[in-house]
Specification:
alpha/beta; Rossmann fold; 2 domains; 9 helices; 11 strands
Length: 266
Amino acid sequence: MTIYVERTEQREEDGWAIFETAVHHPRLPDSLYFRTFSRYSDQISEESDAPALALLIPAMALGEDIHITTTVSEKLLRNLNGPVQTILLAIAPHLSHVKVIADPEPRPPHHGDGLVATGFSAGVDSFCTLTQYRPDDAPQGFGISFLTYNNVGSQGLSNTKDFIERYDRLNKKASKEGLELVPIDSNMDDFFQTCKDIDFVQTHSVRNSATALLLQKKTGRFLYSSAYPYSSTFVGKTCFIAHADPVFLPLLGTEAIEILPVGGRA
């Protein structure tokens, strides 16, 4: 049986801009959504790139192909059907190879005028990235423009109230750094409940990179804070996907946005 994925639709509701994609498969939820505060809606892409990446591991766990009824980045689609799955199968051999079917379409590049984002959890890795890529002290084109805080499964089961409370605490720290913190809430984790014997630390690079793809309308680079030094990089069976990040993350971007590991030299 194939997983059918429809075009992403946008709506406004109670101060949220919601980007929702209908998903058709009896073992999966009926829709995948991402949402952020309405004031950030102009930064969010309605393309199907984020849903395509977000649904890849659940599809591989079920052994079901994905058929997307609209376009996916030509670059991303090629990688999803090739090296991305090769790496994921090395990390978690019990997954299955699947086909991702969509109309390929190149995304317009930003030609150097795109924003730069990074995730922020107030952990050591986050502050390391902030220190190295402050807007006034970063290499040209790499100065951080804003931060993101994602609800994609890192906290286990999380309701909106808990997520907003954590966001408010982190936002105070982000404000002290002079940067806006953009929240991205999602029910993505519900789809990963079908994935037996695989958890957040084996999948976080995919989950968080899917939210980065949401930002490609205005963002040209997403800096992903490294968990390990480059010397710990390998592609193979592991409980920690971050070991593969230097090889893996650059494969998850599009023509419009790069997803780059940073901090691994430390």
